[in-house]
């Protein structure tokens, strides 16, 4: 074998080794990234999860708002990426507890009974005005002593929460997307899809509650979202009971 042939063979072997090492490195990094994503969402390979669908409060028929449908589609893509399975259930047909399967619950307490139960059990520091009558406080969030009113299409708020109960190693998380309007629910699911890696690094397997602001949705849809605050501690601290109204008549 002359020198030219030997150099060609060595070059081919070196290229093959480099390609194999590169493939192994990419595979390792991909699998590590996938494991972290599965751990954050509580969705190991072939696990089961729940999508709890709310109803559109604007209609008397059992229907889902189109923005909530978009939110469910984005969550379905996240679940599929983790290699997990999903079961879709309606907000009034899910009497089971939580912790056995990862749950994604979409919609505010005015359109989702399951959300009402979760907030009462795990977020006693938050109240949502579900009065259907028009007014400045319609849909407003009270978080501790702060109140967040919406200006439809201009400034709207949504809560994004990852909650666990008991031993975090044994229970699966519940993700809540509690918005003042349907478009804000989609904004929260999109925010989670874009920022789950950063949220996992910051919070790990712990619970968190984030207040997000959706800016000018009438022009930008669900895309422009700002983080207002991490309200985890406030949301988990019970609000004082409202003072009773004075029922004495004037003499």
TrEMBL record:
| Keywords of this entry | Membrane, Transmembrane, Transmembrane helix
Q: Does the keyword Transmembrane helix apply?
A: yes
Q: Please give the start and end residues of each transmembrane region.
A: 6-29
Q: What is the name listed in the Swiss-Prot or TrEMBL entry for this protein?
A: Secreted protein
Its source organism is: Streptomyces broussonetiae
């Amino acid at each position: 074998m002359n020198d030219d042939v030997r150099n060609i063979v060595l070059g081919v072997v070196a290229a093959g080794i480099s390609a194999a090492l590169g493939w192994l490195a990419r595979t390792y990094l991909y699998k590590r990234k996938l494991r972290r994503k599965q751990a954050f969402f509580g969705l190991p390979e072939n696990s089961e999860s729940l999508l709890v669908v709310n109803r559109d409060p604007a209609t008397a028929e059992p229907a889902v708002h189109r923005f909530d449908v978009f939110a469910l589609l984005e969550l379905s893509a996240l679940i599929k990426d983790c290699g997990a399975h999903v079961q879709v259930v309606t907000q009034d047909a899910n009497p089971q507890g939580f912790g056995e399967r990862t749950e994604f619950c979409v919609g505010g307490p005015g359109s989702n009974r399951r959300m009402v139960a979760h907030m009462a059990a795990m977020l006693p520091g938050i109240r949502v005005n579900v009065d259907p009558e028009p007014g400045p406080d319609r849909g407003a969030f009270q978080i501790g002593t702060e109140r967040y009113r919406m200006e439809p299409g201009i400034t709207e708020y949504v809560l994004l929460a990852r909650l666990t109960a008991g031993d975090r190693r044994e229970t699966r998380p519940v993700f809540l997307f509690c918005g003042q309007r349907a478009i804000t629910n989609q904004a929260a699911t999109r925010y989670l899809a874009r920022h789950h890696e950063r949220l996992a690094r910051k919070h790990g397997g712990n619970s968190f509650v984030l207040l997000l602001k959706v800016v000018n949705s009438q022009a930008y849809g669900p895309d422009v979202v700002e983080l207002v605050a991490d309200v985890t501690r406030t949301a988990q601290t019970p609000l004082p009971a409202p003072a009773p109204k004075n029922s004495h008549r004037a003499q």
